[in-house]
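lol forgot to send this yesterday, sorry. struct tokens for the thing we talked abt
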């Protein structure tokens, strides 16, 4: 136990996936946690959430009952031709768990949230249960505040950050399709692929369909992208009245008829506002830290939004743990910013590039042997190796050593093994 460690009284603003994750991480680290949520979670609209190995590993470390989330374990990433549906680029995940230690899970948002909430609040498990206050709008005082209040964060404004953002040139409608309905109508059952599937994205256009199975394959979650000139939803928010199915189908006259037939039976058609945020200059101030979309909103095209929030939570859990926290909140938050900002900024930038070029997407960015392969900057592309070989403990130890003027002898640089050769030609630690 680090000399000077003390229990903190932590307030978490926002009770979504990021808020519940950091509540678990800080509970496990020995702190008292109160979560404040302005809503009560009723009327939640469901969509899928991607959780690759770099997120899944922390669920296991925190002893989350992952089975409660009823995930689909992904076996492939498949990119299909826009018109024919024929596979164009496939990234096989058969050896994924063997390589990275954890599977690639696809959750339904509501099930994932319930899974995390149970872990944060239940009596069982290490640390004292977090307290959840819903429909909350009063003031409170804590040793540490974590702003996990999403893309419209109030905490962000309180610490002096004003987002520099522009509406994306891309719009999105989301729809859910029941696999039972698909089978009943004799349509192609994509749930059998256990894959994250994409139509389009090779043509440098904004049109793209993304299919992710969840709920053990019982639900197919569709994200349907098209140019903002075709339909602008920047002034609408998730959870409003469902849009008509004809509006969902209108941008896609030439889309592969197999997936088009799926969209015809889409339910809960909801708009998703897409904004491109420039990286923030800081994500901590005084005794406040931002987490997830509050600190680094990003486009969805790397499927890393939830993972980055989970990683943020893990970083705070480590930094305030009995092994590393010496009672100096300012030091811990300074290290949190130093290890998180570079990583989330890279993902943020790569997600914006992948909006119109699927070859920039983690996984497909490894398929360099394809005729259609093309990326903006080979040396700068994001790869699975960079995301999953990252060791956060080593990153924390390196940055704490600098702060405390103590030796750091591990052969890691910013959490990546020195000498690791990435598929983009970069060797970690090389000149």
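and heres what i got for the seq, position by position
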């Amino acid at each position: 136990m680090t000399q000077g460690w003390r229990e903190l009284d932590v307030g978490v603003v926002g009770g979504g996936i990021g808020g519940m994750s950091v509540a678990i991480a800080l509970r496990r680290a020995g702190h008292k946690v109160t979560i404040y949520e302005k809503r009560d979670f009723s009327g939640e609209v469901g969509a899928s959430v991607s959780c690759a190995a770099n997120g899944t590993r922390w669920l296991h470390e925190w002893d989350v009952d992952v089975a409660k989330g009823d995930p689909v374990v992904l076996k492939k990433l498949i990119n299909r031709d826009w018109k024919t549906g024929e596979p164009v680029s496939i990234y096989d995940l058969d050896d994924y768990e063997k390589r990275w230690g954890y599977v690639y899970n696809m959750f339904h948002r509501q099930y994932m949230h319930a899974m995390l909430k149970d872990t944060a609040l239940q009596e069982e498990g290490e640390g004292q249960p977090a307290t959840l206050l819903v429909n909350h709008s009063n003031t409170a005082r804590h040793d540490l505040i974590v702003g996990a209040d999403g893309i419209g964060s109030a905490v962000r404004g309180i610490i002096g950050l004003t987002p520099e953002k522009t509406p994306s040139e891309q719009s999105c409608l989301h729809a859910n399709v029941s696999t039972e309905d698909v089978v009943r109508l004799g349509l192609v059952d994509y749930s059998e692929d256990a894959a994250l599937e994409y139509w389009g994205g090779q043509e440098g256009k904004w049109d793209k369909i993304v299919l992710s199975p969840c709920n053990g394959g019982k639900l197919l979650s569709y994200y349907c992208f098209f140019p903002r000139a075709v339909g602008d939803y920047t002034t609408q928010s998730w959870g409003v009245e469902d849009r008509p199915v004809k509006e969902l189908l209108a941008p896609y006259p030439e889309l592969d008829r197999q997936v088009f037939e799926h969209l015809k039976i889409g339910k809960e058609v909801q708009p998703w506002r897409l904004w491109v945020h420039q990286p923030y200059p800081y994500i901590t101030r005084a005794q406040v830290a931002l987490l997830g979309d509050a600190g680094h909103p990003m486009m969805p095209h790397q499927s890393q939004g939830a993972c980055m929030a989970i990683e943020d939570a893990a970083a705070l859990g480590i930094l305030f743990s009995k092994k590393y926290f010496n009672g100096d909140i300012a030091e811990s938050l300074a290290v949190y910013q130093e290890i998180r900002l570079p990583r989330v900024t890279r993902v943020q930038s790569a997600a914006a590039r992948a909006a119109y070029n699927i070859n920039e997407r983690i996984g497909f960015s490894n398929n360099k042997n394809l005729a259609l392969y093309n990326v903006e900057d080979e040396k700068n592309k994001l790869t699975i190796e960079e995301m999953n070989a990252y060791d956060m403990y080593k990153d924390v130890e390196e940055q704490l050593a600098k702060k405390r003027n103590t030796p750091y002898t591990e052969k890691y640089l910013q959490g990546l093994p020195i000498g690791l050769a990435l598929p983009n030609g970069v060797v970690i630690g090389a000149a």
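The mean pLDDT is 95. anyway ping me if u want another try
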